[in-house]
Amino acid sequence: MHRDIRGSGSLNIHLKKSLKNSETRDDDASLSSGQDLLARLRADIVKHTFAPETKLKFSDLTERYGLGIGTLREALSQLVSEGFVTLEAGKGFRVAPVSRHDLAEVTEHYVSFEKRALTRSIAAGDDEWETRIVASFHSLSIIEDLSWAERMRRHGDWVDRHRQFHEALVAACDDRWLLRLRSLMFYQLERYRFLSKMNREKSPTRKGTEHRAIMEATVARDAQKATALLERHIRETSESILGTLA
Amino acid sequence: MHRDIRGSGSLNIHLKKSLKNSETRDDDASLSSGQDLLARLRADIVKHTFAPETKLKFSDLTERYGLGIGTLREALSQLVSEGFVTLEAGKGFRVAPVSRHDLAEVTEHYVSFEKRALTRSIAAGDDEWETRIVASFHSLSIIEDLSWAERMRRHGDWVDRHRQFHEALVAACDDRWLLRLRSLMFYQLERYRFLSKMNREKSPTRKGTEHRAIMEATVARDAQKATALLERHIRETSESILGTLA
DNA sequence: GTTGCAATAAGTTTCGAAACTTTTATAATA
DNA sequence: TATTATAAAAGTTTCGAAACTTATTGCAAC
Questions:
Q1: Which of A2, A132, B38, B81 fits as disulfide partner to B75, beta carbons 3.0 to 4.6 Å?
Q2: Which of B73, B90, B175 sits opposite A105 (nearest CB)?
């Protein structure tokens, strides 16, 4: 029943300063170890490293991330606000559950946000915006053109580039709250995407074609066409996920 | 009428160690002193106890709320996710700024959410839902029918009852994420409402009339009319606030 | 005056121990 | 065997101090 936790407890040496003096590349990441913990935790939940409804015990988390309880609580609290984690007083944190109903809701809101954001983005985007879209599409297509096995191996990269592509599309939208809400729903949907990816792989080439079509319509400033393609793209993905959720 | 938010009232938890026991009524919130800190902090920001862009120093906050640094950080982190607070690495927390542009965005999203939530609520609401609306409207109208001076004095109560009324309207909506997003925008708007209240008071009687009309149309299950009234109600309020924001 | 640079103060971030709660295991009783 | 009481374990929540960062002050040198 009980596992490895006790055994390694005595070797809890924190080596906070050990990395400090390396002058090689001192990014601004050093002063916000709590901020990237948030990203790491969210990524691990999205990737189902922690399955839905898993209890998130501090004894496990401190070991995994090498950070203190307070820091972890802070990050988990933010994930509660984002809807990835639930908190029951006195019982601690859990990964939020998934359900077909929840997926349906998230999909509807995401479609609504993304379409509006794309329309505004197309209206306001400049050359730099266009260029970033083309670049991020290319970066994504490199992975999507790979063989099945290779694509599976680099799935983590695909997720990052897929997110970057969709972010690039809407980057010129000037409605800050719309972007914020869109981002919220995007991450929720990403968790469901992983769920489906774990079960079976869909026709992969079509996805690449869809992304290209969306990219081209966007760069051509055809908001009507771009949003229609985008909506179908999102809905088809969600419906295929719904199939895997018994 | 009944507070069905926490269905289970089975928690009998005794007081914590060193609470000032002047409280005759013992709520079940005592287990999570961190959770009601979140509500208190949010309320203080909404009420402009902390003005926009105010620095939120821990030395001040620990004294004001009588809680430790860790607990405060946790609550502030959640408010960052909700958009009430900003965090700059190494510089600490600040109350999020306000602007006309931000208000315009928040208003649009809130209108969109509230209209859809009300429509769904009207379609699904039962007798209990109806009754709660009538009750919360009455509770609100008691304050709105008061004289100007008295209304000002009890403005804190008005805010609570106003929120409860609007929550009652949409309570039967079955889209959890829609309610969540609506709530997010509602609180944002509430901060702007306070901003306007501090400057000058609008025609007060009309507001009461508007609330009554919304209530009646909702109870009559006239979604078309109710949402139209609601939209105008929200937009007029926001526009009057826009006037005060130079 | 003002620019540069320590030294100091003020404030933030992180951590782990202590207090408290829930759960599990053990014992006692019928 | 089943039930309840009691003790131990596991886990959570809170707090304050230590480590670290940023802002301020003081003081030369120009």
A1: B38
A2: B175
Bases of chain D within 7 A of a CB of the protein: 10-17, 19-23
- Cα separation, B73 vs A72, in Å, equals 11
Could you tell me which of A53, A63, A52 has the C-alpha nearest to residue A12? Answer: A63
Nucleic strand C under 7 Å from the C-beta of A62: yes
Q: How far is A201 from chain B (nearest CA, A)?
A: 28
Amino acid identity at B75: A
Indicate whether A135 belongs to any domain: yes
**Measured between alpha carbons, how far is A201 from A195 in angstroms, rounded to an integer?**
11
pLDDT 10s digit of each residue in chain A, 246 long?
233 322 232 233 333 333 333 333 333 445 677 888 999 999 999 999 999 999 999 999 998 999 999 999 999 999 999 999 999 988 999 999 999 999 999 999 999 999 999 999 999 999 999 999 999 999 999 999 888 888 888 988 999 999 999 999 999 999 999 999 999 999 999 999 988 776 555 555 667 788 999 999 999 999 999 999 999 999 988 988 888 887
Q: Which among A22, A115, A7 has a CA at the least distance from the CA of A59?
A: A7
User: Is there a contact between A140 and A158 (Cβ–Cβ < 8 Å)?
Assistant: yes
Q: Does residue B207 sit in the same domain as residue B105? A: yes
**pTM for this one?**
0.84
Q: Are residues A70 and A178 in the same domain?
A: no
| Separation of B58 CA and D26 C1' (Å) | 28
Residue A185 φ/ψ region, left for φ over 0, alpha for ψ in the -120 to 50 degree band, beta for the rest: alpha
Count of the separate structural domains present in chain A = 2
Residue A131 and residue A230 in one domain:
yes
Give me the domain span that covers residue A36: 31-95
Q: Would the Cβ of A230 be found within 7 angstroms of any atom in strand C?
A: no
